[in-house]
User: Which sequence fits this backbone?
């Protein structure tokens, strides 16, 4: 939707197209969904109750060894993912000379490959479990940052974008599944609240590292991208210590039936 406006050098229209897209997809929620039943409460009381829920959830994470390790790993590798996605356009524009229209095409390629990657890894997630899938995709992300250091042409970068996109879809889908397998029953909503909070917070160290190293290297963004691989290596090391995250779905039922027999 934005691409025609960019090609016509009317970039402001791209923002209007984006606003229209948000409005269009929000309408079903406004028109169809109803307000959740239950009593309302004053804002001050809601704030106190929310703070209490956060403290109780944090205590649960600190007591639960695998949840604690998972969130520590997720904080690192999601920081790496967020930074690579955010700075890939800057890298492509400044280091490889991509024009704006080509950058939009690059993001389309990444999003489509992310969708395909999530679909492709769904069966291995059931058979192997989400933890091995996340670990494989983290190794893939680390390899992407190394390859980005050597990439020279737009064509090579598009190939790299496909590899990153498949890893993006897979690591996000498998991470959510892994969290479900680790979370005690009845605590799913609270843990996914922490998952969202952790994901939003995981966009601080990566940009600082990328900017600091690129600046210290005289504007060499290749070194900045290469340094981001450390986040995936650290996340991989922390996740290797998580004991849960085995097979899910039908594969788990088949193994359980085999064991019972």
Assistant:
């Amino acid at each position: 939707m934005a691409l025609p406006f960019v090609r016509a050098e009317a970039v402001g229209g791209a923002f209007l197209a984006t606003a229209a897209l948000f409005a269009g997809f929000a309408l079903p929620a406004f028109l169809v969904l109803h307000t959740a039943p239950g009593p309302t409460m004053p804002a001050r009381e809601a704030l106190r109750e929310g703070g209490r829920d956060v403290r109780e959830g944090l205590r649960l994470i600190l007591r639960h060894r695998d949840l604690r390790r998972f969130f520590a790993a997720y904080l690192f590798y999601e920081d790496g993912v967020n930074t690579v996605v955010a700075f890939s356009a800057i890298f492509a524009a400044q280091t490889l000379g991509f024009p704006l229209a080509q950058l939009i095409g690059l993001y389309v390629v990444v999003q489509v490959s992310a969708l395909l990657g999530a679909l492709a890894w769904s069966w291995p997630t059931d058979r192997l479990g989400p933890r091995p899938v996340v670990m494989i995709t983290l190794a893939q992300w680390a390899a992407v940052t190394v390859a980005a250091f050597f990439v020279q042409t737009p064509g090579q970068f598009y190939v790299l974008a496909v590899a990153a996109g498949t890893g993006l879809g897979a690591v996000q889908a498998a991470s959510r599944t892994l969290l479900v397998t680790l979370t005690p029953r009845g605590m799913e909503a609270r843990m996914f609240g922490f998952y969202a909070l952790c994901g939003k917070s995981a966009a601080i160290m990566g940009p600082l590292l990328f900017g600091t190293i690129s600046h210290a290297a005289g504007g060499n963004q290749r070194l900045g991208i290469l340094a981001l691989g450390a986040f995936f290596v650290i996340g991989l090391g922390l996740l290797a210590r998580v004991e849960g995250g085995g097979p899910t779905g039908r594969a788990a039922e088949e193994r359980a039936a085999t064991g019972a027999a």
Remarks:
- The mean pLDDT is 86.
- The two ends are 56 Å apart (CA to CA).
- The domain at 44-260 is CATH 1.20.1250.20 (Growth Hormone; Chain: A;).
- The chain has one domain: 44-260.
